[in-house]
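My hope is that you will study the protein record below before we discuss the fold together.
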Amino acid sequence: MINKLRITACALLLSTAGIAQEVEFTEYTLDNGLDVILHQDNSAPVVTTGVMYDVGGKDRINNKSGFAHFFEHLLFEGTENIAKGEWFKIVTSNGGKNNANTSNDRTYYYEIFPSNQLELGLWMESERMMHPVIEQSGVDTQNEVIKEERRMRYDNRPYGNWINEMASNLFKKHPYKDPNVGYMEDLDASTLEEFKEFFDIYYKPNNATLVVAGDIDITKTKKMIQDYFGPIPAGKEVTRNFPDEDPITETIEAKFYDPNIQIPAIILGYKTPGMIERDAYVLNMISSVLSTGKSSRLYKKLVDDQKQALEVGALNIPQKDYGMYVVLALPLGETSLDTLVHEMDEEIVKLQEELISQREYEKLQNQFENQFVNSNSSVSGIASSLATYQMLYEDTDLINEEIEIYRSITREDIKRVANEYLNPNQRVVLEYLPKKDVE
């Protein structure tokens, strides 16, 4: 009787998790090209309004970098109907909060409000899209803000520049080679006309996705969206023609000296398929095998058993055009960087030569099932995921179906992908060193 009760309880739990994970949404496009996604969840009186623009660090104007990240800041300066310095005051005084973030591939602005302020959120985002004030004083202000941000996040932060250094060595042609935040000399040399031109190219409804998630009425929300966003004219179609990267056929050795660190790091970087490709999902699984949790292969070997590393990790960095796969470690004591490379390579070779065990495979599947169940635990998270899947993956249904990709990955896939992408002649070996080691 006890066993039967336990089985029933487990079945109920799994059934509930499956139901909770299903995300229902409504998707359509306005006449001006704005893609709209609505998700209704009336369980709490909260609503998220977000706009994702198909513009990121890879996009340039006159071959100058950093504009998308700059606009992440600049478009909070104010609009024709929101005075300078008032944006955040309006949000907080109405019980809300907001933020924005930029990747190499997209920029996302969002507000989280009590649901009775939905219309305010829609109006503010329509103002940002239609009526921003782009003037020299705002450009000058944000230029100083971004310089300070760069100092804090990159130049003065221990290990802050490793990802930029790896990208600059992995990519030679594609703009992924440059920092997402851009180069300060590019921004310093840019004119007000260039900033206005950049906005006119990329920040238009036909280059954006609006997502509204939370305590909403679908019919009423559609009406408000039409009222606020419908009149915004479409821009010209955005076209891109980035150069293809040549394959890496010989190991690239590089060094970087960071004055903010005392312990060196060794970083192995590989150029991998874009985020939409199935092999990118396999690489996520390989990362888990190598470094997720204390029982993972690299952690158990280098940190626990052999005590050769303070930290070790493997991660797949997804991007739309090309991904980056990185394996890194910090040595413990007198362990040399060459020793760490040898030991990490041993584990990669094992993946290339042997199938992972059935037990390890089942554990891996459980990890990704768990991540899937917990991936959309908040309305704001659901909003961001919906926009991301729609814009970058071109398949909004992935919010419910992505787990099927992971379920379809076999032990043979893991071996194949490790052999295809993770070879010494296809990588960058970056020694990330303390400044004092400069000869």
